[in-house]
Amino acid sequence: MGMNKELSIGFIGAGRLAGVLAPVLFKSGYGVSSIASRSRDSASVLSKKIPGSHVSAVEDTCADLIFITTTDSAITDAALNVHSDNAKYVVHCSGASSLEKLAIVKEKGLMVGSWHPYQTFNKSTALEGVTFGIEAESPLKEILYEMTLRVNGIPLEIPSEMRALYHASSVMSCGYLATLFHSAWQTWISAGLSKERGLDAVLKIMRSTLDAIEEHGFPDAVTGPIVRGDKETVNAQLGSIRKYQPSLVGFYEQISLLSIKMAQDYGIAGVEQDWADVFATNLRIEKCD
Q: Which class for 276: exposed (0-12), middle (13-18), buried (19 or more C-beta within 10 A)?
């Protein structure tokens, strides 16, 4: 099994993220020894799922490698409670936060890093095929790379200065995708149509679009009146949104302009025209180099 037989793991934070990571790491051969949380009940629930683990106070968390799986705002406070003789490595699992949040730990002589799964977490989350953003120095970097492979993930080193941009991409891929879904669903409902049928309809067409991107790439997945250059339909849609869903006007305009830009970047015919008479916004449409 490699070095994972020798490496004990602890968690500070017992929420959704730890609730997925800890059991998967245990099943991959790692010894999960210590689980701490501000909510002892949460830590206890997680510990019961992992044989050999125990609940500890945050300041008593002891393991070779301690994962901090709290909210971003709580990382530094958690790190303050890690004692130098209780760990060798301390790793946070935030996508956006830099290693500066672990500076107090580094000053104590411990190695620090970040191990961020590019994934949204719920009760059915799996880690197979998930990209893990890694930032660390050797030998911790190699430990996190091996750990990623052990859970069937894909390791990827993320430059420190690009962490916020990398994390913005992940938010667009999950949380904002849910916002897009909800906006489409609310627009359906505003037409007087069934809420329940709308959920099924929007989910079906969104899945079909994602499947098309995966199987054929973006050009085949970019559809609708924008790429056809159909100003009449776009104007009709925009007029209806202004009347029935006015809060979505700016969103519709901006996502339409981004669709024009994407279509132009991929050389899709039909969009090479002036849309200034349709959209009130002054967003520039610039092609990628």
A: exposed
Helices (H), 174-230: 175-190, 195-216, 218-221, 225-228
**pLDDT tens, the chain, 289 aa long:** 334 557 999 999 999 999 999 999 999 999 999 999 999 999 999 999 999 999 999 999 999 999 999 999 999 999 999 999 999 999 999 999 999 999 999 999 999 999 999 999 877 788 999 999 999 999 999 999 999 999 999 999 999 999 999 999 999 999 999 999 999 999 999 999 999 999 999 999 999 999 999 999 988 888 899 888 899 999 999 999 999 999 999 999 999 989 888 888 888 877 777 788 888 654 454 544 4
Which residue type, as a one-letter code, is found at position 232?
E
Report CA dihedral (247, 250, 256, 262) to the nearest 10 degrees: -120
Residue 286 exposure: Cα atoms within 13 Å on the Cβ side: 5
Q: Which CATH number fits domain 2-160: 3.40.50.1820, 3.40.50.720, 3.20.20.370, 1.10.510.10?
A: 3.40.50.720
What is the reported pTM?
Answer: 0.87
Alpha-carbon span 228 to 128, nearest angstrom: 38
Neighbours of 168 (CB within 10 A): 13
CA 277 to chain centre: 37
> Using the 8-state DSSP alphabet, how is residue 188 labeled?
H
